[in-house]
Specification:
InterPro entries: NAD(P)-bd_dom_sf (IPR036291), SDR_fam (IPR002347). By secondary structure, this protein is α/β, with parallel strands linked by helices. Helices cover 40% and strands 12% of the residues. The chain contains nine helices and seven strands, in the order βαβαβαβαβαβααβαα. Strand 4, helix 4 and strand 5 form a beta-alpha-beta unit.
Amino acid sequence: MTADLTGRVALVAGATRGAGRAIAVELGRAGALVYVTGRTTRDRVSEVGRPTETIEQTAELVSAAGGTGIAVPTDHLEPAQVKALTERIDREQGRLDILVNSVWGGDHLLAFHTKLWDLELADGLRMFRLGIDTHIITSHYALPLMNRRPGGLLVEVTDGTASFNRTYRENLCFDLTKNAPHRIAFGLAAEVKELGGTVVSLTPGFLRSEEMLDHFGVTEETWREAVAKEPHFAIAESPALIGRAVRALAADPDKARWTGRSLSSGQLAREYDFTDTDGSRPDCFGYFEDVVFGGKDATAADYR
């Protein structure tokens, strides 16, 4: 990819691991200055409980890729911390061109195939806080800075396209949490339109995050070994794919054509002609729609 984001300033909220980390690194690879935030640092571990992934590491990866990474420990549920973060960006850079809301950290709360009345209510309500409130708080404080210049980009990262999420996600609180970013993007697109901003919701496919690799007991190099346990993992994609999707969007002078829409990493890979790290272009949602839900006689290889 040749997208050049030199001189652009980005904030990736929730960049400790997974999609957020990969997005930050790819923005750095294009030359951007990237503020990376999260709750897990080298001195403190969040409720996610994964001490080996920190925002300091992410910032170092951004810089190693060719950009400038700046780690700022931030709990995006605390308005005062987010306000201080955006004031710092304004003080140090005077601009914000790209805002990525990738805050989540609720996978440990998930209980799939569980009726609402059997859920741990506190866990369900915590999902709303982690996956919805954080996004609203962050946008509230960051958008005034981004809106100073036309051409800003806000990406609401979620799980599943709006179309895919018409299928029930087997946990009411998770379902609501992962559908909310689509409506946030739709509403904010209308609010920033007159200011020249672009807002989209964006999802990866079946993501080979650090946590998912650990779940299957594989690495990024050996991930195909997990297909024996979970056949649908054959369509999985590395976090780099969604990172490259945001990089391509941010560099597109005509990105406003996407505003208000629900997008996927695979869709943008086809649109902007980039691939995953292995040279493939996985179409996760096409595979699920046609094969898993539609019964088509095909394999994941036909959708890579």
